[in-house]
Amino acid sequence: MKVLITGNMGYVGPEVAKFLRSRLPNATLHGFDNAYFAHCLTGPAVLPERYLDQQFYGDARDVAIDLTGYDAVVQLAAISNDPMGNKFQAVTLDINQNSTVSIARAAAAAGVKNFVFASSCSVYGIADGPPRKETDPLNPITAYAKSKIGAEEELASLKTDMTVTCLRFATACGMSDRLRLDLVLNDFVACALSQGLISVLSDGSPWRPLIDVADMARAIEWAIDRPASNGGRYLAINAGSDDRNYQVRDLANAVARAVPGTEVSINTSAPVDSRSYKVDFGLFRALAPNHQPIVDLDQSIKNLIAGLKKMNFKDSDFRSSDLMRLKVLQGHIDSNRLDESLRWTRD
Known about the structure:
Helix content: 25-40%
CATH topology of the domain at 2-179 and 209-245 and 276-295: Rossmann fold
Shape: globular
Radius of gyration: 19 Å
Strand content: 15-25%
Structural class: alpha/beta
Largest sheet: 7 strands, parallel
Number of helices: 10
CATH architecture of the domain at 2-179 and 209-245 and 276-295: 3-Layer(aba) Sandwich
């Protein structure tokens, strides 16, 4: 099997490469990335790209790799959260949606069998009531969420025999060789270790489904070899687990229990959060019974604590550090390494 992972040098990619190598030792694994975050290593003794057979460098907007001979393409390349999406809205649309569709078309033309797109449950936006199923109405609030559903819609309209799987992932969490702390659970663990205080900016009531990065890799392994007979030629599917829908205050309290002495402060007067949704993962459970999440909340927290302690993490001002992806991009721009369209300069 020959697999290309685009955007492999971010938060999720190292775990995907590691997991696929362990499960498919004889596969040919390639990466493609523009290296925005290549330097953001968090504790590994070796580069995570060692699990790949080859690493290519370039912009997802200009993928020039010949995709002939690949069995699967995994599209992770993205402007990957709401703060970045809001600051770089045009780029978010271009990379998350337009580039995804362009790469998928090139893959189909080259005879690639499976295309996997890392989508997001954030497409449900503010969703009161029962957990959202794939057939329920969508309510994308942010530029990031809109770009994800825009890509899904265009992928669904492709006239191709290629099997396309859009994994609507729950909110990512967990330790990685390129850790991000701009994610709710990761942020709470970092606050507990560095400050002894978790400040919940909302009233704590919003719902979030969570999935550990290790379990995201498990879902991707399923999708790269999914036959069209299992869910259809095109499939948009919630990827996560029903028992991992949490209210934000429950996440904060779980972290506080794991880090004794941590205080939890909740902003009871906060305005309504624009992202609150419970998600139904029944379809994923039915179609991918052997690739269900196995890392529970407590284990994700333990792994984060162990990983951060291994890094000697003590930075109470971590929200201004390179562990926040928006800060990394802004640092590149301020140093004239990237222009405002997030393309590398020659400086």
